[in-house]
Structures are given as structure tokens and as C-alpha cells.
Amino acid sequence: MDYESCAKLLLTHEDILILTHMNPDGDTASCAAALCSALRRGGRRAYVFPNPQMGRKLRPYCEKYYAPADFKAKYVVSVDVADEKLFCLGYDGKVDLCIDHHPSNTHFAEKSFIQDEKAACAQIVMGIILSMNADLTQEEATVLYIGLSTDTGCFQYNNTDAEAFEAAAELMRCGADNLSVNTVFFRKVSSARLKLESMIYDTMRFYLGGRIAVATVTQDMIRKTGAVEDDLDDLAGLAGRSEKSLVNITIREKENGACRVSVRSFPGINSSDICKVFGGGGHAAAAGCTIEGTPEHVRNLLVGVVEEVWK
Questions:
Q1: Of residues 285, 262, 275, the one with CA closest to residue 305
Q2: Beta strand 97-100 with 111-114: parallel, antiparallel or unpaired?
Q3: In a 3-state reduction of DSSP, which class is residue 114?
């Protein structure tokens, strides 16, 4: 499947529902909003499945497209979803078309359009929209810029390549409001987030001479700082600020006794290989998984696996 055939496929259907993943990030949210907007411009009836975990920063871009309670979908499209275990809370149906950029995609949908060389799924959706409508609205360009910039860490992560910059330039030409996006998603944080970051840095642990950096976020830290879900966005990048670190692990304790793990790594260590040991996956440079146990137990397990993979 290429961009043109994917666009034609979408336009042959009606009553389309677009699905994001659980714990939604900027990429899945922006892809859903932009694709829904483009489909409506193409004369299709389309909605986004209401994701109950959508954060305060992303909600304004998506909720205007949320499906009403009585909407009956005839065709379901997932965006930036690598595995059916990652469907957003409240959805348990099938998926007709999966649009994604994760190498670990499990091909759960009837049809898939996967380009795992792309830094962000937003690049794929941009290509589909341009094949569908030949242009992008300013709103579509802005939300896709959110997806591209957040998945590349504001163009700092090592998945940033020439194509990512070219896509950003095209989105800017289409009117993307990069100033507001950069301000909201990269420059301004709450006082609770500042306090939480201070505690994270204070308790950070290092192994193998500093080449492995592990940041932990416990429920107690969240309570003490008064942080809410919106304050917990993009914590995975904090451990990587240590100048010697090559593998950066962020462990976030959940209320159910498990820990959500994010792994970031430089070339030479595959983050996805580490997370696959625990049933997760993702990209070579960024992956995730969920592990049962206390943060300390999870940390010991992960460090052991990283040391083994390093060999």
C-alpha cells in the first residue's frame, strides 16, 4: 500500500471511526484529529473515538471530533497503535485499517499501512492527507506538527532525520503554528511538574559508570508534589540528560501495583529488544513495556536485562 492507495481506500468508506492508543501522546492524538478533519473535507462522515485518558494539552485538538454516543461505525482506523493490547480504554472491537510507524507492529488489523522508517506517524498521515485533498488546512498542519515535534523530542531524539525536518518545513509552509506548539508542549510546565522533576533528579540512579541512567516516579512523589496526569507527560526524556548515559530508563509506578517503563537508547543498544523481554516493544531508540512489581524490583530486573543485552 502507498499513500495514494491508502487515501483512495479511506474515501471508499463511510461512517469512519478513528482510534488512538491508551495513554495518548501527541503523535496518536494529532494523527486522529488531522485525519478526521481531512476525511470530513473529503465528504466522509468521520469521528474520533473519545479517549478517556486524553490530557489537557491535547484534548482541545481532538474533542471537537469525538464520536457521539449513538454513532455506529462501519469502518475503523487506528493511528500510531502498534498492538491491539494498546487500544484506548473503552474500545474492544476490530480494526479495519492500521496506520503506524512502529517496527514492532503486530499486524492486528485487516489491512495495514506501516512505514517504520518514519520518525512519527504524523508524517504518514500528512502524506495520506496530501494524496486525499492535495492540501493541508492550517489546523491540520498545526496538529501534525505537534505529533512530529513531540515524537522527535522537539527534533532532539536520534530518530530525527532529514525527512523529519522536510516534513516540519512543509507543515510550516502550510501554516503550522510552531510558536504556540513549542510554548505549550516544550517550554511551559506547572509548578507541580517542576517539583516532581526535582525529586526525580534527586533519586536518579546510575549503573555501568553512568552509561545506564534510571529515573523513578513513584505514587508517593506524585502525591507529595500534587502532580496530575498532565504533569506526567514526556518524563522519559529526563534520564537522558546525564552526559554519560547511553541507555535511559524511566519507571513510573502505577496505582495497580505495576510499573510503566520507557526505555530510550543511543545506537548500539536496541530499546525494543530490552522491552520485548517483558512483553513490550517499540523502536530501536525508544520503546516501552509494563512490568508487575515495585519500582525497586522493576529497576533491578531492567538493569540486569540491559547489562545482558549490552554483552
A1: 275
A2: parallel
A3: strand
**Residue type at position 249:** I
Q: According to the 3-state scheme, what is the secondary structure of 177-205?
A: CHHHHHHHHHHCCCHHHHHHHHHHHHCCE
What is the distance between the alpha carbons of residues 46 and 19, in angstroms, rounded to a whole number?
11
Instruction: Name the nearest CA neighbour of 234 among 255, 248, 220, 221.
Output: 248
The domains located in the chain, with CATH, are: 3-186 (3.90.1640.10), 191-310 (3.10.310.30)
Q: What is the gyration radius of the CA atoms in the chain, in angstroms?
A: 19
Q: What share of the chain is helix, strand, coil (3-state, %, to 5)?
A: 45, 20, 40
Distance CA 89, CA 138 (A): 30
Distance CA 83, CA 6 (A): 20
In eight-state DSSP terms, residue 183 is I
Checking 180-183 for CB contacts under 8 A at 24+ apart, the result is 180/142, 181/142, 181/145, 181/146, 181/149, 182/149, 182/154
Whole-model pTM: value is: 0.85
**Gap between the Cα atoms of 105 and 48, Å rounded:** 21
pLDDT per residue over 220-247, tens digit each?
A: 999 999 999 889 988 988 998 999 999 9
Q: Cβ atoms within 10 A of the Cβ of 65, count?
A: 20
